[in-house]
Structures are given as structure tokens and as C-alpha cells.
Amino acid sequence: MGDSPRSRRVMRLFVLFCGITLLMVSCRTSEPSPQLASTTTHEILSSIVPDFDRDSEDFPARYYHSQYNVSVEPPLDWEVEEFDGPLTLAFFFEPESGAAITFVQSEVNKGLMSEEVNQVFLDEWLGDSEIEITLENAYKTAQELSGWLRAGFVYAAEGNTESEIKRWALASVVEDDMAYHLTLFLSGDGFESVDDKFVRVATSMQLEPKEPIEVRRENALYLSSGESITLDPALTHYGAGGLIGDLFSGLVALDAQLEVRPGLAMNWDVGEGGTLYTFYLHPEARFHNGRPVTAEDVLFSWQRAAHPDTGSETVMLYMGDIVGLEAYHDGRVETIDGVEVIDDHTLQVRIKAPVPYFLAKLTYPVAWVVDRHNVVLPNWEFHPNGTGPFRYLQHLEEEIFILERNPWYYNEPPRIEHVVYLMYAGYTQRLFETGEVDYAGLTRDQLDRAFDPDDGLFGSIFTETSLCTYYVTFNTKLPPFDDPNVRRAFVHAVDRERYVEAITNDEAAIGRGLLPPGMPGYSDEIVLPDYDSELARELLAASSYYNGSQDPPSIIWTLPTSGGYYSPAAAFLVDTWEEVLGVTILVEGIDWESYNNQIDAGLYGQLLNEGWCADYPDPENFLEVLFHSGSAQNHAYYQNQAFDALIETARSEPDIERRLEIYREAEQVLVDDAPLLILHHSAPSYGVWKLYIKGYIPSPIGVPQHASMWIER
């Protein structure tokens, strides 16, 4: 916690009210006890059932303490502070009323009942004070755990600056040798509403299973995966497919044919010359906990993604066309001017200029919707509350992530009941052979095995070629690559045909431009520099750094390394440049964990090994995103007025053919100026599904597909 007045107030309450070694006020006996006016707490406790009734507008989000595998649903809009234990786990606080609920755990002897443990805790907690117990009763949580609750009043000494009478409550649940307690303290009025909230928190307590939940294998999709770096749509760099695409969704989505289709928005209008979009939300759209999705949720999600404190590295890239979003992202204004909530199901979005790719950009996760009550909680990614076709069921870190079919899904309900991701379970092809997973990637040499019914890799084979290009970036901000002759020399020095043969086993397509084959605007008529070692040496000698007038600067290639070794691709290029040009390349190896953060911070040398795969089928996603002078992804720090002018003209050109022609002109300018060495496009990738998995459509871009797949055994 910080040192704000609010946090100091929270800490003061915490010290006063929530510890077992609490310093309590003195006793007094002269005042009569206040009565709990018409409270429903006793009635609720005496008739608690697992499907505890909620008000239609009350859909609390679940707080999960990752270290101790326990969760509760704190009241909406209460502030949450997490602690590392071992006693206090969390503190829930309502600033308006001063109500405070503390979440505590303690070790107990096996065999003790919740009532006994509750009494012992109460004696240690409030034993030195005069208290009155007005309520005690057994209850059950929604998970059918047995608990005990006591509530009443405590009296303060005369002259105490706090309110003289305080409401307290204590709920305890025992499981094996652990007890979990919730304590409540409240001064002043409002007992009834806070009592009800306390009961709801107590009955929501849930112990997370420590072993994988059993699901019906007959209708479950099993996949192999690594642990996600993040499940936050605002922060992910990994596109719309996979786990994050199962859990979340946005206004629109790409299908496997790369067409924009309705998502949370069932339809939309475009007006004012292509600058005003009106989205109409699906009236049945709900979050995984059943709360209706409104236009306010979309606004919140976008403001959160664009807020500077969120630290999204993709929001300007995919949503920067929206009027006012850049100013909001920079912290200059408090609202996004171009986004307006018309009513619960209508949202208007104004963009700076008409661009044909705006809807396609909104299919990227950064524009997806999150639950505003969920994402403010610590560890919310352990209990994400999205709008996607599947919802969270269980997550055991580095072991398993289980999803179940979302009963509230607004589109056609998924036919698959569960999607199970096995984390770091082993070699994927071996898992496929033993029937533990339903999909495996293949090499070209393994295709024959997948056609053999007697082989463990037998199944439904597919081939995909992603819209990707791989290249080396020259940092034009640093010498010697601020000189175009040096850049061109490094390009002419590389025999790309030999590179592709050696590094990709001749499977990848030699790069014919920045745009990959299959991308609108792709042209095999872009003129690329040929391999010419003699010309390369001449260009280098004609440069301002290698003409003999000065010692040339050091050249550093920043690379991710594993165990101190860098890739054969990098070794090939280093050897080539040193042999052909007589230069020395210093390799700066960085561990994978730190690499991306260092690149994003601009902390790298003159060379970077990069690749880019399309997020949506438009040349803007390559040419503008990677090399426009104003783009955050412009790692080359490339600046060319002619290139920028062409890109900016193409943005809003209404004629499709003319627009693609302008992009081809810009691509030729880029290639001639050589801020990069284009190496190759994606090699075909091969995969195999079990024969009972149906409905998968090969696609050059990763898009959510599990909701439209099914199982036939």
C-alpha cells in the first residue's frame, strides 16, 4: 500500500480491527445494546443453499489468493488490498461507510468444528473487550463447506475518538487443518446492508482444488501449451487465437476466412464519410458470471487499455485511429472524446479519418471487453471473467488450465463442453501418440507417419502458411547504419538463397518484399537488391564510416540467447558480413525473459533479428506499423518523408486498387532505402488433429475457432 490518506486509513483500521494480537478498547457496561433493525441476516443464514439468491444487478467478481488457493467474492466497488500472509490474506474496505472485512487464515488441529474454531478466534480477537453476541448460526458456502458465523456489538471506552459502538461479525470455515476467517468491523449506521454483504462474502468462500478436476473426455478438447505470460487482453502480444480467444471477445472478430464478423456487436452502421461507427451490442451478451454486457463495459475496457498506467504496448497501434485516444493515452485528457455511450446497447466511435481497416483492427485483443469489477482485483487473471465462448473452471500453475462451455454465450453455443490446456506436459507429439492431446504440430519429414493408420501420429492432416515475414532491422539512429550506403552494403552482402536453404531446409519462401504472399497488395515485382559481394564492398568503401577517414564504430547485434548460444541464423549472417565486408559484429546476448522488455525500451544495438505476422489482412499492418516514423513498432527508427507521405495517403484512399498501388510504391521506397534486410516468408506449417476432432479450418492468421469445432467419436 502507498502512503495516501486513504491507504493510511486502511492500515489504521487494519491495525485496530483485523489482527489476532489486536489492541482493543476498554470495557464498559452501562449502555444498552442497540438492536439490529429488521435485518435479514439471520433468515439468510438459517436457510442458506448452494445457489444463494442474488439480486439481478449483483454479479460480484471473484478474488483469488494465488498463494493459498482460496477465493471469495468481495462486495462490488469495495477496495481490495492483498497481503502475503501467513495470517492475513486480504483486506476489503468500503471508504464511504468505513466498513472493513478482513480475510484471515490460521492452522488448527484436525477434527475441530467450525463453531469451536470460531469461538477460539473470537476470544483471541475480542476477548478483552465488552461484546454482545446478537447472532450465531451455522451456514454453508456455495461449495458446501460448513461454516459458523457470530455477530454483535463491541463497546469502546469513554473518550475514545472512534464511534462508541461498533458492529462486528466473524465467519469461520474449517477444512482439514486450516481455518479461514472473515472479520467485519463497522462504526455508525448501515448495519443491515453491510450484514447482507458480509453474508454474501462468507457464503462465496471457495477452496480451489489442488488436483485437476475430472472432465468428460468424450466431449473435451485437449491441447498442449505453455503457461501464458498474461491473460490480459490489453497486454498480450500473441494475437486472438488460443486460450485468450476462448476466454474473451470484442465487438467484432475475424473468421478463418479473414472476414470481419459480428462479435459482441451484432451489427453496426458507418456514417459521416466513414468516420463515425455506431455499434449495436447483442442484447443477450453477458459476462461469464451472468452480468449483462453494456456499452459502458466497452468504454471502460478501452479506457483501461489506453490508460498510461496500464502500460499497453499495442493500444496505439490498433486503436490510435479513435479521436482523442492518443491524448488520453498521453495523460493529457481524462476521457476519450471519440467514444460515446448512447445507451446500454449502443456505442458510437469517431475516428480521425476514414480508414478501411478500422474494424479489422478492433479484432485484436487490446480492443476486447473485460469486466470492470474483475480486473480491479489482485490476481484477477486466476479467475478471469470474460465474454468468450468458454469460461474459467480451473488453473493449476504450470500444470493445467481447464475451461468449460460458457452458458451465457451470445452466439451459437459451443458444442465442445471443455477445453483443457496441459501446461508443460511434455513432448507434444508423444502426448498425441498416447492420446493425451488432440493436436500436434509436424515436420515435413513426419507427414508420411500421419498418413499411416497404424502409426501413433495418424490423424487429420492440415497445412497452413502464415502471413509472416522475417528480416534483420538496421537501427538507423546509430552509426554506421544512419548511412544508407552501409545499409545497402549489408543487404547486398547476403546470399539469401543460400541462407534459406541452410536455415529453413529450403522450406521457406525467399522474401520478395516486406508483404508476405497472400497479403492484399503483395507483388513479386518489387525489386530487391541482389546478392553482390563486390558491390557490397564498394558501397561500404563509399560510405562516410568506411572510407579510411576514421575508425568505424562498433556494430552490436542484440540477440535473445539460450544457455549462452545464439541461433544458427544469426551465426550465418555474422559470418557472412565479417567475411564479405571485413567488419566485426559484436553479439550482445540477452536471456529470453528480459529480451522483449529491453527491445520495447529501445535498449539494443544496431542490429535486430525480427519477424512480423499479420494481425489482420491489410498492408497497413506491415508497412505503417513497422516503418512509419510515428509507429511504436518502428525499431529501425526509420524516417523517410516520401515513405511516410505514401503511407498516409494510402490510409484513407477509397479506391481499393489505387490504395494497394500506393502501398506497393511505398514498399519499393522502403526496399531501396534499406532500413532492413528481408530474409524470407513463412514456411508451410503442418499439423494433425485426432480424427474425431471436426470443424477446424486452416487459416493464415490465428483466430478463435474452438467454439465452432465439435467432436464425433
Question: What is the topology?
Answer:
Elements: H1 5-17, H2 41-46, E1 63-65, E2 70-72, E3 79-82, E4 88-94, E5 99-107, H3 114-126, E6 131-140, E7 146-155, E8 165-175, E9 178-187, H4 191-204, E10 206-207, E11 220-225, H5 242-247, E12 252-254, E13 260-262, E14 265-271, E15 276-281, H6 295-306, H7 315-319, H8 325-329, E16 339-343, E17 346-350, H9 358-361, E18 390-396, E19 400-405, E20 418-423, H10 428-433, E21 439-442, H11 447-450, E22 460-464, E23 468-474, H12 484-492, H13 496-504, H14 533-541, E24 555-561, H15 568-581, E25 585-591, H16 592-600, E26 607-613, H17 620-627, H18 641-651, H19 656-673, E27 676-681, E28 685-689, E29 693-694, E30 710-711
Spatial sequence of strands, sheet with the most strands: 3-4-5-9-8-7-6
| Alpha carbon gap, first and last residue | 54 Å
* Cα Rg: 30 Å
Q: How many structural domains does the protein architecture include?
A: 4
Output the CATH class name of the largest domain.
Alpha Beta
Q: Can you tell me the overall shape? A: elongated
Question: What is the number of E strands?
Answer: 30
**Helicity level:** 10-25%
Please identify the oligomeric state: single chain
**CATH level 3 topology of the largest domain:** Dipeptide-binding Protein, domain 3
